[in-house]
Amino acid sequence: MAKDFDPHRLDVRRFAEQGEELEASAGLQSFRRLAAETQRPGDATPVHWHARGELLNPGHVHPEVWVHLDAGTSLPLVCQRCLHPVDVPLNVERSFRFVADEETAAAEDDEAEEDLLALSRSFDLVELVEDELLMEVPVAPMHQVCPEPVKMSATDAAFEAAEAQREHPFAVLSRLKPGK
Ligand SMILES: [Zn+2]
Predict the structure, then answer these.
(1) What's the gap in Å between 31 CA and the centre of ligand 1?
(2) What is the pLDDT, as a whole number, of residue 80?
């Protein structure tokens, strides 16, 4: 573990040159914007992230500076179908190439398939982790399969009455079937 690298103020080039790695787990409370996405930040899985620096073509005049990032957490959200809590896993795995400055990043962005960022001696890697995870937050979180039965405590009686009515025509139908 690279003790002399501060993930909040990372010297990206040196990190890549030394092929260093950084890794951390932190509670959601240290990710203010991400925490704002949930009503129950205390129930979130700690955010775990890992970053690895890499220098490609080190013999070249302009070697490529890369940072490979993976991060994950699980956010307690509300299912938009059944309105029950749903834990939504967020996972990202992405590689970034760091170029000289913002202008170069903007100029090369169209051709490059990878994500481009501007080199910095005090790059906030933790903020990048948060940016990337935020992009993974679904607009309408939902269970893949909502838990059965779908219960809505506030309107249980009305809901069950509606269900009973809905079953009624089928009950009639089954009585009309031959052999029944
Ligand atoms: Zn649901």
Answers:
(1) 26
(2) 95
Q: What pTM was computed for the model?
A: 0.78
Same domain assignment for residues 104 and 153: no
- Are 68 and 93 part of one and the same domain? yes
Residues 46 and 87 in one domain: yes
Residue 143 alpha carbon to ligand 1 centre in Å = 4
Alpha helices in the chain (DSSP H): 12-17, 32-35, 102-108, 125-136, 156-176
DSSP type of residue 10 = B
Are residue 88 and residue 177 in the same domain, yes or no?
no
Ligand 1 centroid from CA 162, angstroms: 20
Q: Which residues surround ligand 1, an ion (CB under 5 A)?
A: 79, 81-82, 143, 146
| pLDDT of amino acid 72 | 97
Kindly state whether residues 157 and 77 are assigned to the same domain. Answer: no
